[in-house]
Amino acid sequence: MAFLDDLLGAIETYPDTKVQLVIQSVVIPGAVINVGDIFTFRVAVTNTGLLNMVGVGLWITGSSYVSLLSGSMLAELQIIGSETRDVPSGHTVLFGPFRAIGKAETPGGAAANLVAARLYQWDANLDYLLRNRSVSGTVKSTYAERVVPV
Questions:
Q1: What are phi and psi of 3, to 5 degrees?
Q2: Comparing C-alpha atoms, which of 58, 137, 71 is closest to residue 99?
């Protein structure tokens, strides 16, 4: 069962080795975020591996300087799995937009981490690996006989 053990190990480490999350498309109302300002952002999930990721959900957390907004409600520090999407092998999918509101000044007015994103849930299928792989291979069998004139 070494193959299945190796497969399980590869799946367990897949998020760390084959998935990238990037917070992007940040829109702030001015040159800086003031206390009370609402800003938006998206999270790009890139699947660089060979598994199709299905039902991907994110865990978005806010620092002590912001509160996250979920719909019209204040979510405070985290939003978990508010939307799920599929992220096929070799693709990037955008999640969000998510919203946050500045609630406390960062130390000395310096930049600080405001929000963070990580995978919360996901399932996988092997369709990318197992489908459309029927390409011509090497010759495996031949028939030999002589041909003579009639």
A1: -60, -50
A2: 71
Per-residue pLDDT 10s for the chain (150 aa) are 788 888 888 889 999 999 999 999 999 999 999 999 999 999 999 999 999 999 999 999 999 999 998 765 666 667 777 789 999 999 999 999 999 999 999 999 899 999 999 999 999 988 877 776 666 677 778 788 888 888
- Token pair for 137: 């291979």
Was domain 2-130 assigned CATH 2.60.40.10? yes
Residue 54 near residue 93, CB atoms below 8 Å: no
Helices within the chain (DSSP H only)? 2-18, 127-130
What CA–CA distance (Å, rounded) separates 143 from 45? 52
In what order do the strands lie in the sheet containing 19-27?
19-27, 38-47, 92-102, 66-70, 73-76
**This prediction's pTM:** 0.81
